[in-house]
Write a structure and sequence with these properties.
The complex is a heterodimer of chains A (148) and B (148). Chain A is built from 7 helices and 7 strands. By secondary structure, chain A is of the alpha+beta class. Chain A has 2 domains: 60 residues, Winged helix-like DNA-binding domain superfamily/Winged helix DNA-binding domain (Arc Repressor Mutant, subunit A), CATH 1.10.10.10; 67 residues, no CATH class. In chain A, the strands form 2 sheets. A 3-stranded antiparallel sheet of chain A has the order 1-3-2. In chain A, strand 4 and strand 5 form a beta hairpin. Chain A is elongated and about 55 Å long. The radius of gyration of chain B is 17 Å and the shape is globular. The two termini of chain B are 24 Å apart. With 148 residues, chain B is mainly β. In chain B, a hairpin with a 2-residue loop joins strand 6 and strand 7. Chain B has a single domain, classed as Acid Proteases (Cathepsin D, subunit A, domain 1, Beta Barrel), CATH 2.40.70. Helices cover 7% and strands 52% of the residues of chain B. Classes of the chains: A alpha+beta (148), B mainly beta (148). At the A-B interface, helix 4, helix 7, strand 6 and strand 7 of A face strand 6, strand 7 and strand 8 of B.
Chain lengths: 148, 148
């Protein structure tokens, strides 16, 4: 399990652009407009921090990187502004605004306006416990109220 | 012709604060651990169960997500936990999502589709049971009687 200690703008942009797809340093420079020096430093640090997974690029010099899917779960569980940024970067706001979503890595496995209905469906299988994480996208249309 | 209401199972108010408040006894369990709790009945809570931090520790729960909830003082992001709730008198035994709060609560979703007696004179919260047509000679001002 990764332990995310930072999530900066470059990481959020990488999630937005590449999601679960592999990318190399040249993609990071070409598609996101960062300088090669910054890209090298960022990719190296983000890999050490557990945000990215580095893998050998088949038939090419250098490495490919992927966003670690465990980061999604960890950031959602941490909550706050970083969660909102990640949800936005994953493109969920436009599709599921006001709903609850169940995520497994980058994938939305289910969604519902009602948190309890969603929970019943996605956690009915004991094997999914620990893999799936549920959260709201924006302010839920059926928000839970606790008036104490 | 109306139906008569008998008083079924009752739970005494908890007087650890004043005024005393209604409670229901429920059993919460997860991952082989089980606790019997008497959460406050909160009709301002539109969910089923909220689980307090001390019960989270007792059950050693890990969050299954985070959601935004509306409270009297604004909106807060809270963890949600997967727990099995059991209440034999209400024929409840299912796994559900419980929002994490300061103290454990039972909300309207758990109370719905039942008739309840909030007996502040006797300090008890009871299930009211419909027992068929009201007798013509029923002279009780409340229409309630206590089950033997």
């Amino acid at each position: 399990m990764c332990h995310v200690t930072f999530m900066n703008a470059a990481f959020v942009e990488a999630v937005r652009m590449f999601k679960s797809e592999p990318f190399c340093a040249a993609d990071f420079v070409g598609k996101l407009g960062y300088t090669p020096g910054y890209a090298r430093n960022f990719l190296s640090q983000a890999t050490r921090e557990g945000l990215l997974i580095a893998e050998s690029a088949r038939g090419r010099k250098g490495k490919n990187f992927r966003v670690d899917p465990d980061v999604i779960r960890e950031v959602v569980l941490r909550g706050g502004k970083e969660k909102d940024e990640l949800i936005e970067a994953l493109g969920l706001r436009s599709k599921y605004l006001g709903e609850y979503v169940a995520l497994r890595g980058f994938s939305v496995v289910d969604h519902d306006l009602d948190l309890y209905r969603l929970g019943e469906r996605v956690f009915s299988n004991a094997e999914t416990h620990g893999e799936i994480v549920v959260t709201n996208v924006g302010t839920p249309k059926r928000i839970i109220t606790v008036e104490i | 012709m109306g139906s008569r209401l008998d008083v079924g199972r009752c739970w005494n108010f908890n007087d650890d604060e004043q005024p005393a408040y209604p409670t229901i006894e429920v059993t919460l369990s997860a991952s082989g651990r089980r606790v019997s709790v008497r959460p406050k009945v909160d009709t301002g809570f539109n969910g089923s169960v909220a689980i307090g931090s001390s019960d989270v520790k007792r059950l050693r729960l890990t969050p299954a997500g985070t959601v935004l909830v509306k409270t009297a003082t604004g909106a807060n992001e809270v963890p949600v936990y997967l727990v099995k709730i059991t209440q034999p008198q209400l024929a409840i035994a299912h796994t559900t999502l419980a929002v994490g709060t300061e103290r454990s609560l039972v909300g309207r979703k758990l109370l719905q589709n039942r008739t309840w007696l909030l007996d502040c004179r006797e300090g008890r919260f009871c299930i009211a049971i419909r027992t068929g047509p009201r007798r013509a000679d029923a002279d009780s001002a409340t229409g309630y009687r206590t089950s033997p």
